[in-house]
Amino acid sequence: MASRKMIIGMTGASGSVFGIRLLEALKESDVETHVIASKWAQRTMEHETSLTVENLRDLADVYYGPGDMGAQISSGSFMTEGMVIVPCSTRSVAAISNGFGEHLVHRAADVILKERRPLVLVVRETPLNDIHLENMLKLSRMGVTILPPVPAFYNHPKTLDDMINHIVVRILDQFAIETDFAKRWDGDMKNASPRVQQVK
User: Fold this and answer.
1) What residues are paired with 63 via a beta bridge?
2) Which residue from 67, 77, 79, 85 has the highest number of Cβ atoms inside 10 Å of its Cβ?
3) What's the topology of domain 4-173?
4) What is the pLDDT of residues 169-187, one digit of tens each?
5) What pLDDT score does 102 carry?
6) With a threshold of 0.90, does the pTM exceed it?
């Protein structure tokens, strides 16, 4: 029986691959995954990838329907390491920041907030308007980690998978889950030729 449990929510923003890759990575860990995908997360995933909801169920240890408001993860008495919503739509950001639980993803996030457990939102939208930014700032002040899937180039990614893996590793870092499938910054500026100004 897994000693660590983690909630993974997926909502209707673009970027289903981040949630899928995260679940694939967690399959190789000792973490038990509790997964909810909203109706639009399911539709978006089927549009963006070749996967179906059944494939998503296979990746999860426990899978919940978005309308299952009586699920164990809707109670603070169910102990978890925290929750990540990946991808997270700005609609979900608004719902969570204002305590409006439209479906189980939002309710589970509300529980994580009230229990003061780690909540990570992989917000996928650009550009961001004032409402988006204000909602994210409100949540950040509550201790929520806002982690947009911004690509890095210092690690010289060669494929789309490299870029996806980098984001997934950054998500796992928030929960102190160690991985070795992405290249980290090593401090070696191989291609840099900075101008050095001599001090006279």
Assistant:
1) 35
2) 85
3) Rossmann fold (3.40.50)
4) 999 999 999 887 777 777 8
5) 85
6) yes
